[in-house]
Amino acid sequence: MSTKIDATRITSLIVSSFAEDFLADVKLDVAIVGAGPAGLTAARLVASQGYKVAVFERNLHVGGGIWGGGMLFPRLVVQEEAKALLEEVGISLKACGEGYYVADSVETVSKSAAAAIDAGAHMWVGMTVEDVMIDDQQRVCGVVLNWGAVQKAQLHVDPLAVQARVVIDATGHDCDVLRTIERKIPGARLDTPTGGVVGERPMNAALAEAQIAELTREVYPGVIAAGMAVNAATGAPRMGPIFGGMFLSGQRAAQIAAQMLSP
Ligand code: 48H
Question: Structure pTM?
Fold first, then answer.
């Protein structure tokens, strides 16, 4: 039987499928903001434990800073400690000696995203987290969403809200969720050296990579910071295009989320 093409049928399939899937994600165990290496790794590892996970990404594509590699050369370097996290999703690594490995950016994005989806994580692209929801104790209990395009066009459109038991700020250099908390919750104290967003320090790749998994933690009640967002929040140095720490931080964030969710 051949398919009888009907434009209005296509329209209704798109809208009804979107509505059905989005409504299923209105109450989550974990909302992950940002689909870079830290967010995608956390998504895969939390979802694989059976938790209900969705990733919200403001761009129409996932991958964050992976695509650009180092200065637009689409390659990433990872170190020995992170090797297994890439290999377990099927990314081929070129061994370069002394514990260095090189991965292709397109393969890394594609396989990291596919593995997170296969583990059960849902991906919502083109959606910006513009605010958080808080409960009466000022704990973060969800994210407030708008279309990325609405934000870019600076339209006055009110957002929608999604409840989450844990939120992971994986927004990279911006640490957007934590900055929102600092700006909007009077007296909010983040678990950082200053109680607020410190801002990332200049490059020290060795120190940054050594610290990042350990720095990954619940920075505000209900919110874990992962990836570059941790460095920006806590005043740690940047590391340039060595990406192992991003995967390791995503893994640590998934472990912390599972501890927070376990009864
Ligand atoms: C929805 C948002 C929002 C928002 C931002 O930048 P990323 O790749 O982040 P990480 O931490 O996973 O990886 C960092 C790495 O890419 C990097 O930049 C490195 C290693 N830099 C070192 C150096 O020295 O420069 O991904 C973050 C994602 C992006 O896709 C954003 O579009 C997205 O988060 N995002 N999505 N709502 N409010 N803010």
Answer: 0.98
